[in-house]
Design a protein that fits this description.
With 341 residues, the protein is an alpha/beta fold. Helix content is 34%, strand content 25%. The mean pLDDT is 95.
Length: 341
């Protein structure tokens, strides 16, 4: 490809600054041309760095700058409007997770991308982490037989230490975040378990609450029981109160043994067979808040555009993972087991 992809980033907070922007800058096929953030100084600082334009309003950016692709890194409530506006401007869109705050928003985003002939990809980076890729290879090899039960969890101390605004972050403002730990971390794990098992979630029962964070109406903890279409059952945990011992682990109990992912920092993928043998599989590492590794999401997005290939982490995939989270909230509200749409 002779021409560089002209990319704009909407929202210049932590995920943009730590992941999207550096990874675009490292990609030889990309030129960063514009940044938008309501705090114009943040956009301007990045624009100065990359010889680009700065805007406080993403709609003005889309009207004035010709872009091939956009990363939407805004608070959750703006994911849908910003994505739809970018699609209407003819730009391919990579939107952060959760892709939307409701099923209808997600459907509208998918429709906008289709109607305007652009790609929509959701930033579910857990699928691309090397240990998860390796674990899926093990499952697909058939060595372990079918998955019978599982547990997957994602917990850290909360957005205070991650977000650019610390405790004053939008993550804690219900009107902007809509959902807390479940939208931040739970949706990562609903996406991961669907992808790892190559299976859909059929039913969800969940307890979701605000147990420890003060002055916020968003959830900081959730424990969910999932039943998959295959019949496998397991738990999904999301927490912003793992003040020590950050956790991003998954254990799958299968017919012929157990597969452990992320349970041991030195051994990222462990296979333990019923005959007593144990094997560690070389698999790289998983990013943590303390140790940022490449997410691979940006390279995947750029490659899809260059080669005109539909992204594997499509809007439809993002919607299926979102619906698990929405079902969990409904289960908390109703006290019932909720079927996933």
């Amino acid at each position: 490809m002779s021409q560089l992809l002209r990319v704009a980033v909407i929202g210049c907070g932590a995920i943009a600054v730590r992941r999207h922007i550096p990874e675009y800058a490292n990609n030889p096929n990309v030129k960063l041309v514009a940044f938008a953030d309501p705090v114009i100084e943040r956009a301007q600082e990045l624009a100065n760095q990359y010889n680009a334009k700065a805007y406080s309003d993403y709609e003005q950016l889309l009207a004035e700058v010709e872009v091939d692709a956009v990363s939407v890194c805004t608070p959750n409530y703006l994911h849908a409007p910003a994505t739809i506006a970018a699609a209407k401007a003819g730009a391919h869109v990579l939107v952060e997770k959760p892709m939307a705050t409701s099923r209808q928003e997600a459907l509208d985003m998918i429709e906008a991308a289709k109607a305007n002939g652009v790609m929509l990809m959701v930033g579910h980076n857990q699928r691309l982490m090397p240990p998860h890729v390796k674990a899926k290879e093990v499952l697909q090899s058939g060595r372990l037989g079918k998955v019978i039960s599982f547990r997957t969890s994602f917990g850290h101390p909360g957005p205070e230490g991650w977000s650019i605004d610390g405790r004053n972050s939008w993550f804690f403002r219900k009107e902007e975040a809509v959902m807390g730990a479940m939208g931040d971390l739970g949706v990562h794990k609903s996406d991961l378990i669907r992808w790892l098992l190559d299976d859909e979630v059929a039913d969800v029962a969940a307890f979701v609450g605000t147990l420890h964070k003060e002055d916020t109406a968003v959830d900081d903890n959730a424990t969910c029981i999932l039943r998959m279409k295959s019949g496998a059952i397991g738990t999904l945990v999301a927490s912003w109160t793992y003040y020590r011992g950050e956790d991003n682990s998954t254990i799958l109990w299968c017919e012929n043994g157990v597969l452990k992912i992320g349970t041991d920092p030195e051994r990222q993928v462990i296979v333990e067979l019923r005959d007593g043998t144990s094997e560690s599989i070389e698999a790289g590492a998983i990013s943590t808040n303390e140790k940022q590794l490449p997410s691979f999401v940006i390279d995947e997005f750029v490659n899809c555009i260059i080669h005109n290939q539909a992204p594997s982490i499509s809007g439809e995939e993002g919607l299926r993972s979102l619906q698990v989270i929405l079902a969990a909230f409904e289960s908390q509200e109703t006290g019932r087991v909720v079927p996933v749409q």
